[in-house]
Each structure stands twice: as C-alpha cells, then as structure tokens.
Amino acid sequence: MNRLVTLFLTVLSALQATAAHDVVSMKEGRSVTGAVLAEKEDQVIVDLGFTVLVIPRGEVKSIVRGGKDEGTDAGMVKPSAVVRREGSLYQTAREQPPVRDVKALTALLGESVVQVKTPGGLGSGFFLNEEGYLITNFHVIEGETEISIEVYHRKSGQLEKRTYNDVKIIALNKFKDLALLEIEDEDAPAFKPCLIGETDSLAAGDNVFAIGSPLGLERTVTEGILSTKTRLIEGSLYLQTNAEINPGNSGGPLFNMRGEVIGVTNMKMTFGEGLGFAIPVEQVKAFLKYRDAFAYDNGNPSNAYRYLEPPGMKAVLNKDEKKVSKK
Asked: Is 139 in the active site?
C-alpha cells in the first residue's frame, strides 16, 4: 500500500513539474503552482496537471508567471512583451500583465516613478520610455524653467538616488493639468518606463494604488479602491479614489493591480478624507498624440495658445474713415 502511495505522489509531482509554471498566491498564505489558463473578473482558472482548479478572484492575492520570485525579474518589462507604436512616446503591454500584490509591484516600479523639483515646490512624475520622457502635472512646474528630476536606479539589488538637472519642457496643457518633460543629461542611462493601461475595463471597487512624494516623502505608496471613474469636476471627468493623495503626489501615477498606469494624480478635497482624484490615462494619451499642438515655447507667454495681436486705435480709425468715404 505504501508503495502505491509513494508511486502516486511521484507521478503527481512529475505532472505538476511538467505542466505547472505559474504561482497563484492566495489569502492566509496559501498558494498553488500550475499553468494559469484564464484570468476572469470573478475567477482564475489554473491547470494543476492532474486537474483544473477554479479559484474565486476575491481569494487571489497575486499571480507570478513562470514561477519566478516576485520583486526580481519576474515582473520586469521585457522588450518582446511591450508595444510601442511608431511616433508614440509610451509603451503598452502586448498581452494583459498578471495581477500582483502591491508589495511586488512597488518593487518592480521603484525606478519608474520620480520626484520633480523646482525652486517653488515639488511633485511627482513617471517615465514613459527609456529615453527619459516623463509625465507630470502642469501645476507642478507652472512658471518654472529650473527643473530637476530625482530618480532611483537599481544597482546590485539596491536603489540609489540620482538627480538630473538638464530637464527640457516639451509640451504643456494647462487646462488638462499635464506636462511632458525630457531628461537631457548626456550621461543618463536607459530609464525604466511604466506601462500605460486603459480605464475601459475598470469598475468602481477595483483595487488601485499610487506612488509619489507627498510632502516630499519620496517613494510613498498608498493603496485603495477606485471610488468612481466618472466624477465630473468643472466640466472634466476624473477618476476618484480613496487611496491617500497629498501635496507632492501631484503628477504621479495611479496604478491598477497589473502595474499599468491608469491615471495621473493631481488633486484632493482638503475638507474631507479619502477623496483623491486622478486624470484618466486616456487624456494623457490624447495629450501625447497631439503634443505638437501644445509644444512649449519660451518666447510665447500664451503657450500653447497663439493669438493675433489686437488692432490698435490707428487701424480702427483708418477703417472707420474708409467707411465714411464710401458714403
């Protein structure tokens, strides 16, 4: 009998080793190893090799593809896994990334979120690509030309802070509160970009988290839910979240649980708690697509809106004189 049990366990282990390569972590410290066949809104389906297991989505804490340890290379963005259209500054996932917990995602995104500093204050931002293009809020750099970016680079498993001072303003949209910057330091390395997501699949109650520098406290992580994605404020729609947003978070990313940017945090209600707001990522995409229309120009104080000079009194008088002469 013992030989049969041993044989069964041996065959079971062999089947799991052959078919299993994903790790699904659940609440209370439990986990299963298998091939994730499908991720749905209400459940995750895992092939264990000898049977198929259906796990309620509410029980899933994180999913690690390939059986690799979270916080290492398991979630790093690989060139083959992203899509960047011609002329576009940002990257999207070729396939939907796996759901992970905040701890794992924070470790993966440590180099992608930055602090934006000016003589008048500070805010947050995030990289769009390896070349050093990044997004922040317009109000973070409004009226400023002396801008520095603080980035944490991973070296030997540790994050080391470096400040970049050669920063160029590429485009501004005052009314959408968005700004596009570029780090131009000659010795700058390739930066770690964030993946850009979408809000169509989001629903009220979905888990989200923000990374930023509230009150100058760098790399602060706050977690919450999406309260609503259709909050109308002064004619514009915002994502509302109860993830804590404070001064200094402005310009930083709001993430879904796949590590994709779904919004840019930019304000909170000061007379209430848990009332934070973010610009939907679709508005960021539109801003980047039509960035030439918002191109920054030092010589134009009305940038990016260009007006004709109003006629002077002499021109008006000449016009009136012509009308009189015709009579």
From this structure: yes
